[in-house]
Here is the input.
Amino acid sequence: MVLVAGVDSSTQSTTVEVRDASSGSLVASGSAPHPAVTPPTAEQDPAAWERAFEAAFAAAGAPRIEAISIAGQQHGLVALDADGEVVRPAKLWCDTTSAPDAAWLLARGPGSAAGWAEACGLVPVASHTITKLSWLHREEPESWARLARVCLPHDWLTWRLCGEFVTDRGDASGTGYWSAAEEAYRFDLLEIVDGERDWSAALPRVCGPAERVGRWERGGPAVGPGTGDNMGAALGLGLARGEVAVSIGTSGTVYTVAESASADPRGEVAGFADATGRYLPLVCTLNAAKVTDAAARLLGVGHEELDALALAAPSGARGLTLVPYFDGERTPDRPSARGLVAGLRSDVSREEFARAAFEGVVCGLLDGLDSLARHAPAAGAITLVGGGAASRAYPRILADLSGRPVRVVEEPGSMVALGACIQAAAVLDNASPESVRAAWPMGAASMVEPDPAVDAAAVREAYALRREESVANPDGAANR
Here is the structure.
C-alpha cells in the first residue's frame, strides 16, 4: 500500500492524516494543539506549529509515506530575516490590531474599495496579510529593519519540511498583494507599505496545483505545494461549480467554486483562487463555533446538551436575538464590534439562549451567502463541513433559516487534511487534484430538509435589525 499524508495546520491544532494513495481510505491520523489565542491580539510562535506537526505525525504512527502536503490557516504573517529566522511571533488571520492599517491602505494605491477589489480580489480588512505588514512597518521599526522574507503559515511549514520558499495560488490570493485574475503578485500594492524594498526578493514562488516542490529530507517523501485551509476543504469535498459549502469552525466561511475570478467592491466576497486552477469566491466571518462554545460555557453544559437545549426551543427563541460579533467581525467589517443580546425577558430560558446563539451564527453566515450569490452561481443544497457538522443543531437551524437542504458528509477526519492528502497523491502520480478526488470514493452523506413551518424571514429580519445596533467600527486610519 502506497501512503500519502495531508496536514491541516489550523488556528487551534495540527492534524495529520495518512491515506492510501489509490483508494483514499484513511489509514491513520494524529492531532496536537496549538497555543490558544484571544483577539484582538492573536499571535503564535511558528515553532509551535512545527512541534505540533511532529507530535501529530508521531501520533499517527510516523508511517512510511511517499508524499505529503500542508494546508494551513490563511492570511497569517510570518516574518523572516536574511538567515531564515523568525523575526517575531506570527500575526494570525483573527488578529484585528491592524484595522487602522486597513483604513490607511484603503485610502491609497487603487484609491477606492472597487480599485482594490479589481487589483487583487480583496478590499483590505484587518485579517489580510498586507494590513499586518503595514502594522509591522508602523509599530515595530526594528522588526521591519530585519525583515527579509514574508510568508504564510503553510509556506513556512513547507519550507521547514523541504527547504523551498514557495506558496500556492490559493493561499497567495488571500494576502492582498497577489491577483487571482492576473495570476501574479501586485508589487505596486506592497509599495504602498514600503516603496524602498525589493519585494520580488521577499516573496515565495507561486507553484502550480500539483507541482512537486521538494522532498522531506534527502530521498524522502515528495512535498506538494500546499494551500490554504479553505482551498483544502473545497478540494476534499470535490466541490463543483455553483455548489455551496458552509464551514463552521472557529470562524465561519461560505464559498463556492467558480470559473472566473471575482471582484466585490463591497469587500464582502473575497476573490480567492482555489487549489485546482479555478477560483473560490468566499465570505468569512470571524465568529462561528466560538460563539456556541461560549454559550455552552455560560450555561455550564457540553456540546451535546447545548444542541438539545437549542432544538427544544422554538425558532426565533421567542424574540431573543444574539448578534455574534464577540471578537470584532470581518464580514461586515467591524473589527471593534462586540456581541449583542437583545430581547431579554425575565422568563428567558436556557433553551432560548442556546437557540439564539446558534441562530445568530447562522444568520451571519446566511448574510454571507446572500453576498456570495451576487457574484457567483450559488443555488441548491448546502454542504456543511467543519466542527459544526458534528452538531445536531447547526444543520437543522441552517436548513430551516436558509430554506435549503443541508448535506452533512460523513467523511472521517478533517476535510482540510483530506484535501491536502489529495494534493499529495496528485503530486505523487503527476495527476490533477480533480482526477484524484474523482477516483477516491466520497463518504456517505445525510440530508437535513428545511422545516416549512419555520418563519425564516421573521428570524432573519429580527437579526438584521439587531445587527445594525451592534457597535460599528470606530477605528480611523493609522497615522504615518
The radius of gyration is 21 Å. The domain at 238-409+444-475 is CATH 3.30.420.40 (Nucleotidyltransferase; domain 5). Residues 350-373 form the longest helix (24 residues).
